[in-house]
Each structure stands twice: as C-alpha cells, then as structure tokens.
Amino acid sequence: MTEFDAVWLNANLATMQAGSEPYGAITDAAIAVKDGRIAWLGPKSELPAFDALSTPLYDVQGQWLMPGLIDCHTHLVYGGNRANEFEMRLQGASYEAIAKAGGGIRSTVKATREASAEQLFVLGKDRLNALLSQGVTEVEIKSGYGLDLASEQKMLQVARELAVHHPIRIHTTFLGAHALPPEFSDSDAYIDYLCQTMLPELHRQQLVDAVDVFCEGIGFSVEQSRRLFQTATALGLPVKAHAEQLSNLGGSALVAEFGGLSADHIEYLDEAGVQAMAKAGTVAVLLPGAFYFLKETKKPPIELLRRYQVPMAIATDLNPGTSPLCNLPLMLNMACTFFALTPEEALLGVTRHAATALGIRDAGTLAIGNKADFGCYAISQPAELVYQQGVNSLRQLVVNGMPVVI
Ligand code: NIG
Ligand code: FE
C-alpha cells in the first residue's frame, strides 16, 4: 500500500499545468501529500490503495484546489504611509512632481529609517497575514526604503525574520537602486557605492536572493542599471527591473540581456523589448494596482506579449506610494478589466508564471514532486476567484502538506 501523510478527496484540481484542459483542470480528483510534497494527484478513481484508516482524509466535496498563490513583486516592509500624497494627487499633483519635490519614495525612506526592526516586523506581519488569508503562500519582498547600508540591512533582516515566523515563504530582493538617498547628490557615485560596498556586504550576509533597479527618468539610467547588474551577476545573483513604467528607456531589454528573471510594470514596453524578453525567457510582471492608483492610461502591450509568448505574471506591487493595495485577488480582477487578460491568464499570472518570475521550479502548479502548497476554495469554477471580490471563498490553506490557520 502507498504511504501518504494526508489525502484530499472529491476535489476539482486547477493544476495550472500546461495541457489541453483550461486551468489544467482535473475534475473528480484526489491529491495526496508526503513529506511536504505532492506525492500523487489525478482522477479519484485512479488513486492508489493506501491505508485510509490511519491517513488523515479531507473530503472537500467538490471544492476547487489551486496552487498556493504567489505575489512576485512587493515592497511590503516599510514604515509610515503616504495618505497625504494621495490627497495631493487627488488635487492634481503628479507622482513625478511629488517625487521631485522630495516626497514620494524619499518620504517612505525617512519613515522606514526611523522605524525599529520590531515595528517593521509587526507591520510586515499584518500585511503577510492579509495575503495569507487570500491564499497566498509565497511572496517576494524588496528592500529599497533604507538606501543606506544599515537601513537596507534592517529591511532585509526583517524580511528574513518574517520568513522564520510566518507560514508564507519569502524571497528577498535588494532594491538599493530605488531612489537617490539624501546623502548623495551624484547618482553615479551612489551606484558605485551600491556595487562596491552595499550589495557585496548584504550578499555576504545572505540577505539577498535577487537584485532589482528602478530604471526610469526619476530613477536610474540604463547604463547605471547595467553596472549594478554586472555586480549582481558577478555575485551570482539574478536580476530584474522596474522598467518602462513611465517612459520607454530600454530597461526590459537590459534585463533580458542579463538573462534576468522579470521586467515589471512595462506599460511603455515596445516590440523590440518584448522580443528581447521572449528570447531570454524573462517574465513580464504586470502591476495593475499601480496603474490604477496612479490613474495611468498607457497600458502594457498585452497583444505583443501574447504574440511572442512572454509569460505574464501579476503582482500587487504592495507599497505606500503607488499601490497601497494588499490584495492579490483584486489584482486578478484588475488585470482582466484594465488589461483585458483572460481569467485563466490572470490566474497563471499568480501561479505558474509568478513562480517563474521568482526562479522557483517546484511551486506554482499542482504537480507530483512540487511543494504541497494549495488552497481549497468553495467555488464552482476557477474564474470565480478572479470575478468576485470581497467574499473569501478560501476554506483551507495547505502549506508544506499541512493545513495552516488563516
Ligand atoms: O513599484 N517604481 C518604483 N517603485 C514603486 C513605488 C515606490 C513608492 O512610490 O514608494 C513601484 O511603483
Ligand atoms: Fe514596485
């Protein structure tokens, strides 16, 4: 008899694997876990014999099981908030004008520097709890509101600490190149400091899983981004960028040139950039929350991304300035309403393609050998998760093969 640690029966599985069925669906199915991994899945009628008396069984009565959702772009460790800037923008001030006047990212830098690690931990934990209750099991967290060694270190340590105490799995990203800190007037000198001192030191402390840059007129140039990527690559770290958000500088093609994980935002991405990403296998991360909150009108080139088969991920971009929206299901809905993704594309964007955007191979789909992370939803079809907002249909969340408290 086959040995399992637990078995879920009478399930419908949205495996999100590629294949002939939409959502990789298997109806009337079962799924079994062993040692934190998916040990078996398929039609219930084919479930191998196992000891049904001693194995925990969950009869989910036709619920849909989805891979644990993955939020592959967040800035969820930060101090303070920017409700005042929200009010200013509602009265007509632009995001760029507020940033140039010393607000924007810099105001969150001040609040984050002033916050203790304990305060940041509590704030981060609340945000992670919200995501967990939505079925999220894996999250990327960026630094970038410290912009000096001690404060960037504090943010990344808090992210690592959250990983120890929270069921959600966490991937850290160094975003020292987010804005020019007040101590520097020369952005080239700051990039030198990041390359020579900050990044190597934080890497030495094993706080960095990937390296990001804000490649933009109000951020850093393509040449500066290239220097940072060279340092990251020499350290063996994968790269990604906030690119083509407000203008078309070519940051996405640069990520592709380095074989990077993802180019994120990409509203202004052109065909050459899409082609470069397709060739490199770089994921397009769509951030409809920031598009909505900044009242942008330029939409990412979805048709081109489809045509060149660039995988599209969707994330919250949770941050105090452009997306104070701690809600991944809402992003699914917005990706469809604003960017005309199909519900299936949207769900792939927070599962299989989000995993690729983080360089993860054993999550994002329900497949034998993958981490046993999945949610059980009381819905009649997967598109419901995208369609309805505000009512939580998540009935059980499983991480590492074990139900967690949500
Ligand atoms: O992803 N674009 C730069 N970074 C963030 C905004 C950060 C902020 O305004 O605090 C983003 O949109
Ligand atoms: Fe961001």
UniProtKB/TrEMBL annotation:
* Compartments it resides in: Cytoplasm
Q: What is this protein called?
A: Imidazolonepropionase
Cite a single Pfam family from the UniProt record.
Amidohydro_1
The UniProt note on the cofactor reads as follows:
Binds 1 zinc or iron ion per subunit.
**UniProt-annotated binding residues for Zn(2+):** H73, H75, H242, D317
Positions bound to 4-imidazolone-5-propanoate: R82, Y145, H178, Q245, T322
Q: Which GO terms describe its molecular function?
A: imidazolonepropionase activity
The entry's function note states: Catalyzes the hydrolytic cleavage of the carbon-nitrogen bond in imidazolone-5-propanoate to yield N-formimidoyl-L-glutamate. It is the third step in the universal histidine degradation pathway.
